[in-house]
Design brief:
The chain is α/β, with parallel strands linked by helices. Helix 20 links the parallel strand 22 (about 570) and strand 23 (about 600-605). The chain is about 45% helix and about 25% strand. The chain has four domains: about 1-130, PAS domain (Beta-Lactamase, 2-Layer Sandwich); about 135-305, GAF domain (Beta-Lactamase, 2-Layer Sandwich); about 315-465, Alpha-Beta Plaits; about 480-735, Alpha-Beta Barrel (TIM Barrel). Strands 19-20-22-23-24-25-26-27 form an eight-stranded mixed beta barrel, surrounded by four helices. The chain has 25 helices and 27 strands. The structure holds ligand C2E and magnesium ion (MG) (2 copies). One magnesium ion binds near residues 512, 571, 603 and 633.
Length: about 750
C-alpha cells in the first residue's frame, strides 16, 4: 500500500522502474552509475548529450580513465575514492573531456550506494555542465587582474568585448560611457567599424535615443528586438542596419550612488532578444565594466585633486612640472624655445586683509579665468601658489615673451569683479626663457618667480627678465641691508668732512659731511652702495637725522675750539622730504647746538622734485623760509630741468664731478659746464664744482667764473681729526705767509 506521501506513483515495482527511467532520461543533468567493480553500468541521455558517449560506448569501462583528460587534476580521483569508500558523497568542479576531446567543466556530485551490510555496490554520479560559468569566472579573474595592472580603460573594455564575443559568437558587443554632460562616449566596440563609434560619440542620453541612449536615460535595461520598427531608432538605424544589425539589448551600468556611468550593449544579426546565456554574460560584465569605469573616475578625481588647483580649476605646479618637465627632458637637442611668465597680483595681501578671503578667492578665480581666456590654447596657464600664476608659452622668444608680458599686464588692469565688489588690480610679471635661463622646469619656475619679484621691487605693474647679475645684486642688497640696520643700531657709521674752498683765495667756504661705514667683515662700504640700500630698506631717514645731528654737533664743537668753518653741508635723501616733520627736526637740531640756519646747507638732488607732493613742496619752502641754504647736488646729471631750478628756492648749484675729468678735453662737457655756470649765475646761485682733482681744472673753472671748489686737489674727505689737522696746517701757512 502506498502511503499518502507516495500518492500518484506507480504501485508495481516494474512500473516504478519505468517511471524512474523516464525521469532519468528527461532530466538535463547528466547521470552515470558505476558498479562495485567501478565499471559503468548506466548513463542517461543527458550524459550522452554532454559527453558524446552512448551507453554502448561506455558500458563496462572505467569512467575516470575515459573522461579524465590531460588537464584534469588527477588528485581529484584519489580524493573521490577516499570519500566514497568512507561512505560519504564527493562534490567538486572537474575539468573533464568529451568524446571528441573537448575540455568540459562539470560540477560533479558522486553518491555512494551501500547494501544492507554497508558494502559499496554502486556510485551514482550527477554531472552538470558548468563550462560557461567557469569561462565567465575566468573572464572575471582576467579583468580583475588587468584592472590591478592598471591597464588603460579603453584597452580593458576592448578586451572584455572580445572575450564576450568569443563566449557568445552570435553577438557583437559594445561599451559606452556617459560623460558628465550626459553624452554617449563609446569606449569599446572591437567588432564594429570606427565610423559607428564616431556616429554615436556625443549623442545626448535621452528617451528615444536608440537603445543605449534610452537605457542610460531610464537607468534600466532596454531590449529592442527589431531596430527596423522601433521609433527610438528612427534617427540612428541606418548605419547599423547597413551592417546587418537587427536587434539590440542595452544594460545600464549603475554606480553605487545610482548614477549611470555607461551602457553595456549586445547587437544581434536577427530580430530577437537575449538568451539566458547572454543574460549570464551581461550579469558578469556589467558589474565588471561598471567597476572599471568607476575606478577610472576615481582615478581622474584623484588626478584632478593632485594636478589641478581646487579654487581656479587651473593646472597646478605638479601638473606643469609633469607635463612641461617631460617635454623639456625629451628636447635633448635644445631646439625648443619656451618662455615662462610668472604673473603675480600686486598687493594681493592687502585685498585679502581688507575685503576678506572670499573676495580674495574671487579675485584669484577672475584672474585665472582672464589669463586662460587670454591665452586660450597658446599657453598653459597654471596657478603656482597664493596669487602667483605661471604661463608656459611654447615657440616663444624673448621679444614675444615681452609682448605677452605687456599684454598680461594690460589685460589684468581691467578692474575685477569679486563677490559684490569691483576692484582695480595690477600685476607684475617675471620672465624666464628656455633654454637660455635654465634647462629644467624647476629652474625655469624658480627663475621666472625671481624675475617677477625683481620686477615688482623695481616698480609694481611692470615686467622683467630673469637676470642672474641683478639677482646677485639683490642678494648682496639683502645681506648688506641687514648689516646696515645693525650698524645704525650700534652707531657704527661715521662722518668724514671734505672742505669746500674758494679757488681764488684759498679761503674755506664750508665742509661737506659724508657718511662712512666700515663693516667688521666686509670692510669699508662706500656710500654709493649703502645709501641706495638704506633708501630701499627704509633706514635712510635714520641716517639723515644722524648725519644732521653729528654734523651740527661737529660744527658747534669746531667753533667752540676755534676752528673757523663757515658752514656745514649735509646730504639729505629725497625720501626724507616726504616726511612732514623734517623741517621741525632740523630746527630742533640747530637749536640744540646753538647754530643759526645759515650755518647749515642741505644738499638735495633733483630726485626730490620727481615727486612734487604737497609734503615735499612744504618742506623745501619752509627750509628756505627758515634761512637754511639749499644746494642742488650732482647738477647736470639725471633730470636737470631749468624750470625746476627756477621754481625751487635753491641757493647753491653743485656741478657734478663726472664733468671734471672731461672738462679739459671734451668740448661737450665744456659746453655743459659753461651752460650750468651761466644758469647758476643768472639765478644768482653760488656755484660749487665737485671733484676738482687738478690744477688745470681749477684754472679752467676759475676762468669760467666758478669760484668754489671741492675735490682731491684741495683735500679728500677726512675724519674729524684729519680735518682739524688740515685746518691747523692752513692756519699755520697763512700765519707764515703773513709773517
Ligand atoms: P656727493 O654728495 O656728490 O658727494 C661727493 C662725492 O664725491 C663723495 O663721494 C666724495 O668723496 C667724492 N669726491 C670729492 N672730491 C672728489 C675728487 O676730487 N675726485 C673723486 N673721484 N671723488 C671726489 P662719497 O663720499 O663716496 O659719496 C658718494 C655719494 O653718497 C654722495 O655724493 C652722496 O650723494 C651720498 N652720500 C654720502 N654721504 C651721505 C649721507 O650722509 N646722506 C645721504 N643722503 N647721502 C650721502
Ligand atoms: Mg653731496
Ligand atoms: Mg655730488
Amino acid at each position: 500500500m502506498l502511503s499518502e506521501r507516495n500518492k500518484g506513483l506507480p504501485e508495481k515495482r516494474g512500473d516504478m522502474l519505468d517511471f524512474i527511467e523516464m525521469a532519468m532520461s528527461r532530466t538535463d543533468r547528466a547521470i552515470l552509475i558505476s558498479g562495485s567493480d567501478r565499471e559503468v553500468c548506466y548513463v542517461n541521455p543527458a550524459f550522452t548529450t554532454l559527453f558524446g558517449y552512448t551507453l554502448d560506448d561506455i558500458l563496462a569501462t572505467r569512467p575516470w580513465e575515459l573522461l579524465a583528460g590531460p588537464l584534469t587534476d588527477i588528485k581529484v580521483h584519489e580524493r573521490a575514492q577516499h570519500s566514497l569508500y568512507g561512505e560519504t558523497a564527493f562534490h567538486d568542479d572537474l575539468l573533464l573531456r568529451t568524446k571528441s576531446g573537448d575540455p568540459i567543466w562539470v560540477s560533479a556530485r558522486l553518491e555512494p550506494v551501500l547494501d544492507e551490510k554497508g558494502q559499496l555496490t554502486h556510485v551514482v554520479a550527477l554531472l552538470a555542465d558548468i563550462t560557461n560559468t567557469k569561462r565567465l569566472q575566468v573572464l572575471q579573474r582576467e579583468v580583475l587582474e588587468a584592472m590591478a595592472r592598471d591597464v588603460p580603460l579603453v584597452e580593458l573594455m576592448n578586451s572584455i568585448c572580445s572575450q564576450v564575443e568569443a563566449l557568445a559568437p552570435d553577438i557583437v558587443s559594445s561599451v559606452i560611457a556617459i560623460d558628465n554632460e550626459g553624452r554617449l562616449r563609446p569606449l569599446a566596440a572591437p567588432s564594429l567599424p570606427s565610423s559607428i563609434a564616431e556616429f554615436i560619440d556625443g549623442l545626448p542620453v535621452g528617451e528615444g535615443v536608440g537603445t543605449c541612449g534610452t537605457a542610460a536615460w531610464r537607468g534600466e535595461v532596454v531590449v529592442t528586438p527589431d531596430i527596423a520598427s522601433d521609433p527610438a531608432w528612427e534617427a540612428y538605424r541606418e548605419p547599423f542596419m547597413r551592417l546587418g544589425i537587427r536587434a539590440c539589448w542595452s544594460t545600464p551600468m549603475l554606480m553605487r550612488d545610482g548614477k549611470v556611468t555607461g551602457t553595456f550593449a549586445f547587437y544581434f544579426a536577427d530580430e530577437r532578444g537575449p538568451s539566458a546565456w547572454h543574460q549570464q554574460i551581461v550579469d558578469t560584465c556589467v558589474h565588471l565594466c561598471g567597476m572599471a569605469i568607476e575606478r577610472e573616475e576615481a582615478k581622474s578625481r584623484i588626478n584632478q585633486l593632485a594636478y589641478f588647483d581646487g579654487l581656479t580649476g587651473l593646472q597646478n605646479r605638479a601638473s606643469l612640472r609633469r607635463r612641461i618637465g617631460e617635454k623639456l627632458r625629451r628636447d635633448t637637442g635644445r631646439r625648443m624655445r619656451m618662455a615662462f611668465l610668472c604673473v603675480d597680483i600686486d598687493r594681493f595681501k592687502d585685498i585679502n586683509d581688507t575685503f576678506g578671503a572670499p573676495v580674495g578667492d574671487g579675485v584669484l578665480t577672475a584672474v585665472g579665468r582672464r589669463l586662460s581666456d587670454h591665452f586660450g590654447y597658446q599657453g598653459a596657464v597654471c596657478r603656482l601658489n597664493g596669487d602667483a600664476f605661471i604661463i608656459a608659452l611654447e615657440d616663444t622668444d624673448r621679444e614675444n615673451a615681452a609682448r605677452h608680458a605687456r599684454d598680461v599686464i594690460a589685460a589684468l588692469l581691467e578692474p575685477v569683479q569679486a563677490a559684490d565688489v569691483t576692484l582695480p588690480i595690477s600685476s607684475s610679471v617675471g620672465i624666464a626663457l628656455y633654454p637660455d635661463d635654465a634647462k629644467d622646469i624647476d629652474g625655469l619656475l624658480r627663475h621666472c618667480e625671481t624675475a617677477m619679484f625683481e620686477a615688482k621691487a623695481e616698480a609694481r605693474g611692470s615686467y622683467g627678465f630673469y637676470d642672474p647679475e641683478a639677482r646677485a645684486l639683490n642678494k648682496e642688497r639683502l645681506v648688506l641691508g641687514t648689516a646696515l640696520r645693525e650698524a645704525i643700531a650700534l652707531d657704527q657709521l661715521e662722518l668724514v668732512y671734505q672742505p669746500q674752498v674758494d679757488g681764488n683765495s684759498g679761503a674755506i667756504y664750508g665742509a661737506e659731511a659724508l657718511a662712512r661705514w666700515t663693516h667688521p667683515q666686509f670692510g669699508p662700504v662706500s656710500p654709493g652702495r649703502f645709501i641706495p640700500i638704506a633708501e630701499q630698506i627704509g633706514v635712510i631717514e635714520a641716517i639723515g637725522n644722524w648725519a644732521m645731528r653729528t654734523a651740527c654737533a661737529q660744527l658747534a664743537d669746531w667753533r667752540a675750539r676755534g676752528f673757523d668753518v663757515p658752514a656745514i653741508s649735509v646730504n639729505i635723501s629725497p625720501q626724507q622730504f616726504r616726511n612732514r616733520g623734517f623741517c621741525e627736526s632740523v630746527a630742533v637740531c640747530l637749536e640744540r647746538y646753538k647754530l643759526v640756519p645759515s650755518d647749515l646747507t642741505v644738499e638735495i638732488t633733483e630726485g626730490v622734485m620727481l615727486e612734487e607732493t604737497p609734503a615735499v613742496v612744504a618742506n623745501v619752502r619752509s627750509l628756505a623760509e627758515m634761512g637754511i641754504r639749499l644746494s642742488m647736488d650732482d647738477f647736470g646729471t639725471g633730470h636737470s630741468s631749468l624750470s625746476l631750478l627756477a621754481r625751487l628756492p635753491v641757493t647753491e648749484l653743485k656741478i657734478d664731478r663726472s664733468f671734471m675729468d672731461r672738462i679739459e678735453t671734451d668740448a661737450t662737457a665744456q659746453a655743459v659746464v659753461m651752460a650750468v655756470i651761466g644758469i647758476g649765475q643768472s639765478l644768482n646761485m653760488t656755484l660749487v664744482a665737485e671733484g676738482v682733482e687738478t690744477e688745470a681744472q681749477r684754472q679752467f673753472l676759475m676762468a669760467l667764473g666758478c669760484a668754489v671748489h671741492q675735490g682731491y686737489h684741495y683735500a679728500k674727505p677726512m675724519s674729524r681729526e684729519s680735518f682739524e689737522g688740515w685746518m691747523s696746517g692752513r692756519i699755520a701757512r697763512q700765519v707764515r705767509r703773513s709773517a
